[in-house]
Amino acid sequence: MATAFHNLSDYDPTTVPNASNMKFGIVVSEWNENITGGLLEGAIETLKKHGAKDENIITKLVPGSFELTFGASQFLKNTDVDAVIILGCVIKGETPHFDYVCAGVTQGITDLNRTSNKPVIYGLLTTNNMQQAIDRSGGKLGNKGDECAITAIKMINFFGV
Ligand SMILES: Nc1c(NC[C@H](O)[C@H](O)[C@H](O)CO)[nH]c(=O)[nH]c1=O
Ligand SMILES: CC(=O)[C@@H](O)COP(=O)(O)O
Fold it and tell me: What is the 3-state secondary structure of 64-123?
């Protein structure tokens, strides 16, 4: 279902478990920080809304979305987080570079989910233009960061990781 028909921040809060005993790693890209900052704010606010403690939300920056896989991998190898959320925004330019960055991150995060026993949540915006990114990072179509926070909480609860 397209985001236009399902706001990214719409969910039934009664279906979301308490996150007070959960620990989260968030990797966020500096590229398009006007967008990724909004994604991060939404994710943290939503995690805390459902009980997550400040000290249990660890955030790390990476320069660009292509580095998100490495950041997530480091969380998985070196920390005791229960889930990792990656947040980035790739906006199409004049060359095929967009396709390669998006495909690389998607494959990298998919591989981590396949090989790790902790979920890595896919918070990558891949948009045609800046307005589409604005709309999905706290704008009229909601906030992808909110969606990722809820997904992380549910995955930890569903699989008891
Ligand atoms: N054009 C965008 C990039 N490009 C940078 C890459 O992600 C990467 O950091 C670089 O290729 C060095 O490895 N990154 C974004 O996050 N968003 C873009 O729109
Ligand atoms: C996703 C990108 O790297 C892209 O924004 C770069 O822009 P361009 O393809 O015009 O070099």
Answer: CHHHHHHHHHHHHHHCCCCEEEEEEEEECCCCCHHHHHHHHHHHHHHHHHHHCCCCEEEE
Q: Which of 65, 99, 125 to mutate to test the pocket of ligand 1 (most atoms within 8 A of CB)?
A: 65
Ligand 2 mean position, distance from CA 150 (Å): 30
Q: Does any domain span residue 23? A: no
Task: Tell me the residue range of the domain where 60 lies.
Answer: 33-156
**Is the residue at 26 inside a domain?**
no
Nearest CA to ligand 2 atom 8: 93
Beta-bridge mates of residue 29: 62
Domain for residue 9, yes or no?
Answer: no
- The ipTM, to two decimals, is 0.96
> What CATH number is given to the structural domain containing 87?
3.40.50.960
Residue 41 lies in a domain: yes
Instruction: Among 66, 89, 94, say which to mutate for ligand 2: greatest number of ligand atoms within 8 Å of CB.
Output: 94
Residue with structure tokens 């320069």?
A: 63
Structural domains in the chain (count): 1
**Structure confidence by residue, pLDDT tens digits, 83-142:** 999 999 999 999 999 999 999 999 999 999 999 999 999 999 999 999 999 999 999 999
The answer to whether the annotation marks 147 as part of a ligand binding site is no
